[in-house]
Automatic annotation (TrEMBL):
<feature type="transmembrane region" description="Helical">
    <location>
        <begin position="155"/>
        <end position="179"/>
    </location>
</feature>
<comment type="similarity">
    <text>Belongs to the ABC-2 integral membrane protein family.</text>
</comment>
<keyword id="KW-0472">Membrane</keyword>
<feature type="transmembrane region" description="Helical">
    <location>
        <begin position="121"/>
        <end position="143"/>
    </location>
</feature>
<feature type="transmembrane region" description="Helical">
    <location>
        <begin position="33"/>
        <end position="55"/>
    </location>
</feature>
<keyword id="KW-1003">Cell membrane</keyword>
<dbReference type="GO" id="GO:0140359">
    <property type="term" value="F:ABC-type transporter activity"/>
</dbReference>
<dbReference type="InterPro" id="IPR052902">
    <property type="entry name" value="ABC-2_transporter"/>
</dbReference>
<keyword id="KW-1133">Transmembrane helix</keyword>
<keyword id="KW-0812">Transmembrane</keyword>
<protein>
    <recommendedName>
        <fullName>Transport permease protein</fullName>
    </recommendedName>
</protein>
<feature type="domain" description="ABC transmembrane type-2">
    <location>
        <begin position="39"/>
        <end position="265"/>
    </location>
</feature>
<dbReference type="InterPro" id="IPR013525">
    <property type="entry name" value="ABC2_TM"/>
</dbReference>
<keyword id="KW-0813">Transport</keyword>
<feature type="transmembrane region" description="Helical">
    <location>
        <begin position="76"/>
        <end position="101"/>
    </location>
</feature>
<dbReference type="InterPro" id="IPR047817">
    <property type="entry name" value="ABC2_TM_bact-type"/>
</dbReference>
<dbReference type="GO" id="GO:0046677">
    <property type="term" value="P:response to antibiotic"/>
</dbReference>
Length: 265
């Protein structure tokens, strides 16, 4: 008498989410957290737009001035406010957020899951850099529609300059996040870096009013090169190749440093 063979039970199917879907979900959750914090929205979005409205509402700010290279105060400060939004987003706000994740062990725990910590870094960089770029576009739209700011004749050059300066500032933010051992140090380093970056962007002394030597130094900084490139597109020219190379160089160099020094725990 023989016993009928019982077929083996099929192995349970393991449903794995695609990497793209995992990243989108992570991006969505991190964006919600950033929105709820309020700091990103106020400092990166509201403050630059409010600054543009205030400048545009003052009498005489739309009149070209010889001391500003033939540009008006409004035309001069529009790209500077774009740099302000990007710098606040990725240099001042992003590093402390990543430092908090490191201190709480979130990055270390992610390394044991199917979601690598690098995805979280990518989500953070996308959110904060994307916010800065989006606000820059909003600033341009408000300037063009409300205050008769000239639309860049070289739109492709404008987009290229904005992408490169966004990549350069994001790289600097990741370097701060990589080197800072704690949230407090990350906040301090971000603040210290913000002031020289914005100085050479022309926030306190417009680039046209700088001495030749100071302007040359500004040309070699990521934000100085960014302002120079964007102003060139508004003037109807393609961004200077030297400015594009400076921004690309900062993006690559800071990205390499951040990749080699970043600690997950």
């Amino acid at each position: 008498m023989t016993t009928a063979a019982v077929p083996a039970a099929p192995a349970p199917r393991v449903v794995r989410a695609s990497s793209g879907r995992v990243f989108r979900n992570l991006l969505r959750s991190e964006a919600v957290l950033a929105w709820r914090s309020g700091a990103a929205v106020f400092w990166s979005a509201f403050l630059p737009v409010a600054g543009l409205v205030v400048i545009g509402s003052i009498s005489g700010t739309r009149t070209p001035q010889d001391g500003l290279g033939g540009r008006s105060v409004l035309d001069t400060y529009l790209p500077i406010l774009m740099m302000f939004s990007l710098t606040i987003s990725v240099v001042t706000l992003m590093p402390p957020t990543l430092a908090v994740y490191r201190e709480k062990g979130i990055l270390r725990r992610l390394s044991t899951t199917p979601v690598p910590p690098s995805r979280l870094l990518g989500a953070q960089a996308t959110i904060y850099a994307g916010l800065g770029v989006l606000v820059s576009v909003v600033l341009l739209v408000v300037g063009v529609t409300a205050y008769d700011v000239r639309l860049p004749d070289q739109l492709a050059g404008f987009v290229l300059a904005l992408v490169l300066v966004g990549a350069a500032t994001t790289g600097l933010g990741l370097v701060v996040a990589a080197l800072a051992p704690s949230t407090r140090v990350a906040s301090a380093l971000s603040t210290l870096l913000f002031f020289p970056l914005m100085f050479f962007a022309g926030l306190w002394i417009p680039r046209a009013s700088m001495s030749p030597g100071l302007r040359t130094v500004s040309d070699w900084t990521p934000l100085g090169a960014g302002v120079r490139a964007i102003q060139a597109t508004v003037d109807g020219h393609w961004p200077p190749v030297s400015s594009l190379l400076v921004m690309a160089g900062w993006a690559v160099a800071s990205g390499v440093v951040a990749a080699r020094t970043f600690r997950w725990e």
